[in-house]
Amino acid sequence: MPLRRTTRFIIVRDGARQFTSASVARIGDWILKLRYTRPAPDDAAAAEADATASAAFDEALRQIIEQR
Hints:
By secondary structure, this protein is α+β, with helices and mostly antiparallel strands. Helix content is 37%, strand content 47%. A hairpin with a 2-residue loop joins strand 2 and strand 3 (30-39). The radius of gyration is 13 Å and the shape is elongated.
């Protein structure tokens, strides 16, 4: 898997706590970015959201690499 960078935040939007993240990676000449936001009323929900976002980006990167 290529090197990637991810930033994660807990934000409050319209009074609701949310997890949001942005991940970027480079594959050849392409720069890929995944933004992910989901309600996270507690830390367990935020950790689950983080794991889901990470798995989604891993899968997208894997599929792109396989096609090369």
